[in-house]
Specification:
Number of domains: 2
Strand content: 15-25%
Distance between the termini: 48 Å
Order of helices and strands: HHHEHEHEHEEHEHHEHEHEEHE
CATH class of the largest domain: Alpha Beta
Strand order of the largest sheet: 2-1-3-4-5-11
InterPro entries: HTH_LacI, Lambda_DNA-bd_dom_sf, Peripla_BP/Lac1_sug-bd_dom, Peripla_BP_I
Structural class: alpha/beta
Number of helices: 12
Shape: elongated
Largest sheet: 6 strands, parallel
CATH superfamily of the largest domain: Response regulator
Keywords: DNA-binding, Transcription, Transcription regulation
Protein name: LacI family transcriptional regulator
Helix content: 40-55%
CATH topology of the largest domain: Rossmann fold
Mean pLDDT: 86
GO molecular function: DNA-binding transcription factor activity; transcription cis-regulatory region binding
Pfam families: LacI, Peripla_BP_1
Length: about 300
DNA sequence: TATCTCTCAACCGACATGTG
DNA sequence: CACATGTCGGTTGAGAGATA
């Protein structure tokens, strides 16, 4: 039965037809638990999210990544399990439970949650894993997938420079900068593009920007790049009181569904989050199936 | 004799049940 | 009480039988 259903070639047409007839007659569907018992597989992969971040799951960018992951998972006839994790209470989280009880064959961990404690737990349990986003700490043997944020920021900055804008500032959130590698990379990409063009880089936190008059880094910027779209939205929330000057070009990375509610023209660069999900899931399946990988990480260029 | 196809049975792991 | 055995339902290796 299993040889027929799993496409084994050494089966005669006659036997195959006979088996398929019985499958049809009894509406036979293999029991995944029994299959897992025989193959030491769960046919499930996990994705963890931050329990303390209430908007983690509803975040549209997170959902775009998930969409890519799910496409791959369902194509492989696997199931997908969402697990919560509390960074400061790892042992009590459902993530730790799922990993230690081997309820999944592999896990995807967002870089914000990938701490050294998480890494050692996964190594100890021999659980295949892929980090979604470049990890904040480097260790050999860690597989990860990320957007090439340096390249994306360079491309966006160059686009503004090509428009003849010479005074371009970048705005970031201090807390994001310490926990999100991609924010550091975007700042780095911006600096490089400005440096190449012989222009002076101007950086400010949102807090500092709020305190400035004229809505610019130093009050003289012609364009402002926001390191994340949510930061731009936060800033625009306050725009009723201090609307940005018409002469200021706004720019950020990617577009969430909320983007269409923005009343101002915003330049953005496309970040392929769905592709990131697809690549991460493909990489995880390669690790589960012990397939040789060409490289331990993938950086997806922005368009 | 070589190759193809089929059948049998061990095995997977956790838990329930039986036996001494 | 401790240990042995059975149970679930697939997968898969080994070996037997059929056929060219």
């Amino acid at each position: 039965m299993s040889r027929v259903l799993n496409g084994n070639t050494n089966i005669s047409e006659r036997t195959r037809d006979k088996v398929m007839e019985i499958v049809k007659q009894y509406n036979y569907v293999p029991n995944t638990l029994a299959k897992g018992l025989a193959s030491s597989r769960t046919y499930t992969v996990g994705f963890c999210y931050d329990y303390t971040e209430k908007q983690a799951v509803s975040n549209p960018f997170f959902q775009m990544v998930l969409q890519g992951v799910e496409d791959v998972v369902y194509r492989r006839n696997f199931l997908f399990l969402m697990m919560s994790m509390q960074r400061d209470q790892l042992d009590a989280s459902s993530f730790a439970k799922v990993v230690t009880e081997r309820r999944v064959d592999g896990v995807l961990v967002p870089t914000q949650l990938f701490t050294e404690a998480v890494h050692s737990l996964l190594l100890r349990e021999g659980m295949p894993f892929v980090v979604v986003g470049e990890p904040m700490f480097a260790q050999p043997g860690i597989h990860w997938v990320d957007i090439d944020n340096v390249q994306a920021a360079m491309a966006l900055t160059r686009r503004l420079i090509d428009r003849g804008l010479g005074q371009i500032g970048i705005v970031y959130d201090e807390a994001d900068k310490t926990k999100d590698k991609f924010v550091l990379d975007r700042i780095e990409g911006y600096r490089r593009a400005m440096g190449e063009a012989g222009l002076q880089a101007k950086e400010a936190t949102l807090e500092r920007l709020r305190g400035m008059s004229g809505n610019g880094c130093g009050g003289a910027s012609q364009a402002l790049i926001f390191s994340t779209e949510s930061l731009l939205l936060d800033w625009l929330d306050e725009a009723d009181e201090h609307p940005p000057a018409d002469s200021i070009h706004l720019a950020t990375f990617d577009r969430s569904p909320y983007h269409r509610h923005i009343k101002y023209g915003v330049e953005s660069i496309e970040i392929e989050l769905e592709t990131m999900g697809i690549e991460a899931a493909d990489m995880l399946f390669a690790l589960i199936e012990k397939t040789e990988l060409a490289q331990p990480y993938i950086k997806i260029p922005a368009k």
